[in-house]
Design goal:
Layout: H1 6-13, E1 17-21, H2 26-36, E2 42-46, H3 58-74, E3 79-82, H4 85-99, E4 105-106, H5 109-115, E5 124-129, H6 131-136, H7 138-146, E6 151-156, H8 160-165, H9 172-182, E7 192-196, H10 204-211, E8 216-219, H11 220-235, E9 248-251, H12 256-265, E10 272-274
Parallel strand pairs: 1-2, 1-3, 2-9, 3-4, 5-6, 5-7, 7-8, 9-10
The structure holds D-glutamic acid.
Protein backbone atom coordinates (compact mmCIF):
# COMPACT_ATOMS: atom_id res chain seq x y z
CA UNK A 1 0.00 0.00 0.00
CA UNK A 2 1.25 3.47 -0.90
CA UNK A 3 1.98 5.82 1.98
CA UNK A 4 -0.81 8.33 2.58
CA UNK A 5 1.43 11.28 1.75
CA UNK A 6 2.84 9.87 -1.54
CA UNK A 7 0.73 12.23 -3.72
CA UNK A 8 1.37 15.14 -1.39
CA UNK A 9 5.16 14.69 -1.55
CA UNK A 10 5.06 14.14 -5.35
CA UNK A 11 3.36 17.50 -5.84
CA UNK A 12 5.52 19.13 -3.22
CA UNK A 13 8.75 18.26 -5.03
CA UNK A 14 7.91 20.74 -7.80
CA UNK A 15 6.98 23.44 -5.31
CA UNK A 16 9.33 26.37 -4.67
CA UNK A 17 11.64 26.89 -1.70
CA UNK A 18 10.70 30.06 0.21
CA UNK A 19 13.67 32.16 1.30
CA UNK A 20 13.61 35.42 3.22
CA UNK A 21 15.85 38.09 4.67
CA UNK A 22 15.57 41.77 5.54
CA UNK A 23 17.12 42.61 2.18
CA UNK A 24 19.87 41.54 -0.16
CA UNK A 25 21.77 39.28 2.29
CA UNK A 26 19.57 36.23 1.82
CA UNK A 27 20.54 36.21 -1.85
CA UNK A 28 23.95 34.89 -0.77
CA UNK A 29 22.08 31.87 0.62
CA UNK A 30 19.69 31.64 -2.38
CA UNK A 31 22.68 31.71 -4.70
CA UNK A 32 24.43 28.87 -2.83
CA UNK A 33 21.22 26.80 -2.86
CA UNK A 34 20.75 27.24 -6.61
CA UNK A 35 24.41 26.49 -7.32
CA UNK A 36 24.05 23.19 -5.49
CA UNK A 37 20.54 22.43 -6.80
CA UNK A 38 20.00 24.34 -10.06
CA UNK A 39 16.75 22.45 -10.68
CA UNK A 40 15.06 23.98 -7.62
CA UNK A 41 12.68 26.93 -7.84
CA UNK A 42 12.78 29.72 -5.27
CA UNK A 43 10.48 32.44 -4.03
CA UNK A 44 12.54 35.15 -2.37
CA UNK A 45 11.19 37.82 -0.04
CA UNK A 46 13.41 40.77 0.91
CA UNK A 47 11.81 42.82 3.66
CA UNK A 48 13.50 46.04 2.58
CA UNK A 49 10.77 48.15 4.20
CA UNK A 50 12.01 47.00 7.61
CA UNK A 51 15.74 46.72 6.87
CA UNK A 52 17.90 46.71 9.02
CA UNK A 53 16.44 44.00 11.24
CA UNK A 54 19.52 44.23 13.44
CA UNK A 55 18.28 47.41 15.14
CA UNK A 56 14.69 46.24 15.66
CA UNK A 57 13.14 44.72 18.76
CA UNK A 58 12.78 40.95 19.02
CA UNK A 59 9.01 41.46 19.04
CA UNK A 60 9.07 43.35 15.72
CA UNK A 61 11.37 40.81 14.03
CA UNK A 62 9.14 37.94 15.17
CA UNK A 63 6.08 39.57 13.70
CA UNK A 64 7.84 40.33 10.36
CA UNK A 65 9.03 36.71 10.20
CA UNK A 66 5.53 35.41 10.88
CA UNK A 67 3.93 37.54 8.16
CA UNK A 68 6.54 36.54 5.58
CA UNK A 69 6.25 32.84 6.47
CA UNK A 70 2.46 32.99 6.03
CA UNK A 71 3.02 34.64 2.66
CA UNK A 72 5.54 32.01 1.50
CA UNK A 73 3.37 29.12 2.59
CA UNK A 74 0.40 30.79 0.91
CA UNK A 75 2.49 30.76 -2.30
CA UNK A 76 2.81 26.97 -1.93
CA UNK A 77 6.42 26.75 -0.73
CA UNK A 78 7.61 23.28 0.28
CA UNK A 79 10.28 24.62 2.63
CA UNK A 80 11.03 27.92 4.37
CA UNK A 81 14.62 29.09 4.78
CA UNK A 82 15.17 31.93 7.22
CA UNK A 83 18.16 33.35 5.33
CA UNK A 84 18.84 35.96 7.97
CA UNK A 85 20.81 35.46 11.17
CA UNK A 86 18.84 38.09 13.04
CA UNK A 87 15.48 36.49 12.21
CA UNK A 88 17.00 33.04 12.85
CA UNK A 89 18.18 34.15 16.30
CA UNK A 90 14.86 35.59 17.44
CA UNK A 91 12.05 34.46 15.10
CA UNK A 92 12.85 30.89 14.11
CA UNK A 93 10.57 29.28 16.71
CA UNK A 94 7.63 31.27 15.36
CA UNK A 95 8.48 30.31 11.77
CA UNK A 96 8.72 26.65 12.71
CA UNK A 97 5.39 26.77 14.48
CA UNK A 98 3.67 28.15 11.38
CA UNK A 99 5.36 25.57 9.12
CA UNK A 100 4.25 22.68 11.32
CA UNK A 101 5.47 19.16 10.72
CA UNK A 102 4.89 18.92 6.96
CA UNK A 103 6.93 21.93 5.84
CA UNK A 104 10.57 21.93 6.89
CA UNK A 105 11.86 25.26 8.20
CA UNK A 106 15.58 25.98 8.38
CA UNK A 107 17.55 28.67 10.13
CA UNK A 108 21.07 29.77 9.21
CA UNK A 109 22.69 29.32 12.62
CA UNK A 110 22.46 25.56 13.27
CA UNK A 111 24.12 24.45 9.98
CA UNK A 112 27.06 26.80 10.61
CA UNK A 113 27.58 25.52 14.14
CA UNK A 114 27.42 21.89 12.92
CA UNK A 115 29.95 22.80 10.26
CA UNK A 116 32.48 23.58 13.02
CA UNK A 117 32.69 19.86 13.85
CA UNK A 118 35.27 19.34 11.07
CA UNK A 119 37.38 22.20 12.34
CA UNK A 120 39.43 20.38 14.95
CA UNK A 121 42.10 23.07 15.13
CA UNK A 122 39.59 25.75 16.08
CA UNK A 123 40.29 27.30 19.49
CA UNK A 124 38.84 30.78 19.47
CA UNK A 125 35.87 31.64 17.27
CA UNK A 126 34.98 35.24 16.55
CA UNK A 127 31.40 36.03 15.60
CA UNK A 128 30.37 39.24 13.89
CA UNK A 129 26.73 40.11 13.26
CA UNK A 130 23.97 42.61 13.87
CA UNK A 131 23.27 44.11 17.29
CA UNK A 132 20.21 41.91 17.71
CA UNK A 133 22.00 38.68 16.73
CA UNK A 134 24.91 39.41 19.04
CA UNK A 135 22.60 40.40 21.91
CA UNK A 136 21.00 36.92 21.83
CA UNK A 137 24.41 35.16 21.97
CA UNK A 138 22.74 32.49 19.83
CA UNK A 139 26.05 31.30 18.36
CA UNK A 140 27.97 31.23 21.63
CA UNK A 141 25.20 29.29 23.41
CA UNK A 142 25.17 26.61 20.71
CA UNK A 143 28.97 26.44 20.31
CA UNK A 144 29.62 26.16 24.06
CA UNK A 145 27.08 23.34 24.24
CA UNK A 146 28.46 21.36 21.29
CA UNK A 147 32.16 22.14 21.60
CA UNK A 148 32.99 22.98 25.22
CA UNK A 149 36.68 23.20 24.33
CA UNK A 150 36.15 26.22 22.04
CA UNK A 151 36.20 29.85 23.13
CA UNK A 152 34.02 32.46 21.49
CA UNK A 153 33.81 36.23 21.29
CA UNK A 154 31.03 38.21 19.65
CA UNK A 155 31.13 41.69 18.17
CA UNK A 156 28.18 43.71 16.87
CA UNK A 157 29.05 45.37 13.57
CA UNK A 158 25.88 47.41 12.93
CA UNK A 159 27.23 49.62 10.15
CA UNK A 160 27.99 46.71 7.84
CA UNK A 161 24.58 45.40 6.72
CA UNK A 162 23.12 48.85 5.82
CA UNK A 163 26.39 49.72 4.06
CA UNK A 164 26.21 46.52 1.97
CA UNK A 165 22.48 46.94 1.32
CA UNK A 166 23.30 50.35 -0.17
CA UNK A 167 25.77 48.65 -2.52
CA UNK A 168 28.61 50.38 -0.71
CA UNK A 169 31.47 47.87 -0.65
CA UNK A 170 34.79 47.02 -2.32
CA UNK A 171 36.05 50.55 -1.89
CA UNK A 172 38.50 52.39 0.35
CA UNK A 173 35.92 53.66 2.84
CA UNK A 174 34.20 50.29 3.29
CA UNK A 175 37.63 48.67 3.81
CA UNK A 176 38.42 51.28 6.48
CA UNK A 177 35.14 50.60 8.31
CA UNK A 178 35.71 46.84 8.13
CA UNK A 179 39.30 47.18 9.36
CA UNK A 180 38.13 49.34 12.23
CA UNK A 181 35.68 46.67 13.42
CA UNK A 182 38.05 43.73 12.91
CA UNK A 183 40.85 45.41 14.84
CA UNK A 184 38.73 45.67 18.01
CA UNK A 185 40.22 44.04 21.09
CA UNK A 186 37.23 41.70 21.39
CA UNK A 187 38.36 39.80 18.29
CA UNK A 188 41.99 39.47 19.32
CA UNK A 189 43.65 36.03 18.82
CA UNK A 190 40.76 34.41 16.95
CA UNK A 191 41.60 31.61 14.50
CA UNK A 192 38.10 31.40 12.99
CA UNK A 193 35.55 34.08 12.14
CA UNK A 194 31.88 33.35 11.59
CA UNK A 195 30.10 35.82 9.32
CA UNK A 196 26.89 35.80 11.35
CA UNK A 197 24.99 37.99 8.91
CA UNK A 198 24.00 36.82 5.47
CA UNK A 199 24.97 40.20 4.01
CA UNK A 200 28.64 39.71 4.89
CA UNK A 201 29.72 37.27 2.14
CA UNK A 202 29.49 40.34 -0.08
CA UNK A 203 32.43 41.85 1.85
CA UNK A 204 34.30 38.59 2.31
CA UNK A 205 37.18 39.76 0.09
CA UNK A 206 37.64 42.84 2.25
CA UNK A 207 37.57 40.73 5.40
CA UNK A 208 40.18 38.42 3.83
CA UNK A 209 42.27 41.47 2.94
CA UNK A 210 42.37 42.33 6.61
CA UNK A 211 43.28 38.85 7.88
CA UNK A 212 45.62 37.82 5.02
CA UNK A 213 44.90 34.08 5.43
CA UNK A 214 45.62 34.13 9.18
CA UNK A 215 42.00 33.46 10.13
CA UNK A 216 39.53 30.92 8.70
CA UNK A 217 36.33 32.61 7.55
CA UNK A 218 33.02 30.76 7.66
CA UNK A 219 29.86 32.07 6.01
CA UNK A 220 26.40 30.61 6.35
CA UNK A 221 25.56 30.29 2.65
CA UNK A 222 27.31 27.02 1.86
CA UNK A 223 26.57 25.25 5.11
CA UNK A 224 22.89 26.19 4.75
CA UNK A 225 22.69 25.07 1.11
CA UNK A 226 24.03 21.65 2.09
CA UNK A 227 21.49 21.41 4.88
CA UNK A 228 18.68 22.36 2.47
CA UNK A 229 19.75 19.59 0.10
CA UNK A 230 19.88 17.07 2.94
CA UNK A 231 16.40 18.02 4.21
CA UNK A 232 14.81 17.99 0.75
CA UNK A 233 16.07 14.46 0.22
CA UNK A 234 15.03 13.39 3.68
CA UNK A 235 11.49 14.62 3.05
CA UNK A 236 11.59 13.20 -0.50
CA UNK A 237 10.66 16.60 -1.93
CA UNK A 238 13.71 17.47 -4.04
CA UNK A 239 12.77 18.64 -7.53
CA UNK A 240 13.33 15.97 -10.17
CA UNK A 241 10.95 17.40 -12.78
CA UNK A 242 13.75 18.52 -15.13
CA UNK A 243 11.77 21.71 -15.85
CA UNK A 244 13.57 25.05 -16.10
CA UNK A 245 12.83 26.81 -12.79
CA UNK A 246 11.12 30.20 -12.78
CA UNK A 247 12.07 32.12 -9.67
CA UNK A 248 10.09 34.93 -8.06
CA UNK A 249 11.50 37.87 -6.11
CA UNK A 250 9.46 40.09 -3.81
CA UNK A 251 10.48 43.22 -1.94
CA UNK A 252 8.38 44.97 0.68
CA UNK A 253 9.80 48.26 -0.63
CA UNK A 254 11.49 48.60 -4.01
CA UNK A 255 15.07 49.86 -3.88
CA UNK A 256 17.35 50.44 -6.85
CA UNK A 257 20.37 49.28 -4.82
CA UNK A 258 18.75 45.87 -4.26
CA UNK A 259 18.20 45.52 -8.00
CA UNK A 260 21.81 46.53 -8.71
CA UNK A 261 23.40 44.16 -6.16
CA UNK A 262 21.07 41.30 -7.14
CA UNK A 263 22.83 41.31 -10.53
CA UNK A 264 25.95 39.92 -8.85
CA UNK A 265 24.03 36.70 -8.26
CA UNK A 266 21.44 36.83 -11.03
CA UNK A 267 23.06 38.59 -14.01
CA UNK A 268 20.05 37.78 -16.23
CA UNK A 269 17.86 40.67 -15.09
CA UNK A 270 15.35 39.51 -12.51
CA UNK A 271 11.88 40.92 -12.17
CA UNK A 272 11.34 42.38 -8.72
CA UNK A 273 7.79 42.60 -7.48
CA UNK A 274 6.99 45.12 -4.78
CA UNK A 275 4.65 43.76 -2.15
CA UNK A 276 4.03 45.36 1.20
CA UNK A 277 2.53 42.65 3.40
CA UNK A 278 1.80 45.25 6.07
CA UNK A 279 -0.09 47.80 3.94
N1 LIG B 1 21.07 39.73 6.73
C1 LIG B 1 20.61 39.86 8.06
C2 LIG B 1 21.31 38.87 8.97
O1 LIG B 1 21.78 37.85 8.53
C3 LIG B 1 20.55 41.15 8.77
C4 LIG B 1 20.73 42.46 8.25
C5 LIG B 1 19.82 43.47 8.94
O2 LIG B 1 20.21 44.05 9.97
O3 LIG B 1 18.72 43.63 8.43
O4 LIG B 1 21.36 39.09 10.17
Amino acid sequence: MKPVYAGFFLNMSKAPIGIFDSGIGGLTVANAILKLMPEERIIYFGDTAHMPYGDKSAHAIKSYSQAITHFLIGKGCKMVVVACNTASAVGYKEVKKICGKKIPALNVIDPVVSHLSDKRDTHKVGIIGTKRTVSTRAYTKRIVKEYPEMMTCELATPLLAPMIEEGFFNNKISQTIINSYLSRKTLEHIDTLILACTHYPLIQKEIENYYRDQVRIIDSAHAVAEKVEEELHQFGINNVSGEKPKHEFYLSDYTASFEETAKIFFPESIKLKELNLWA
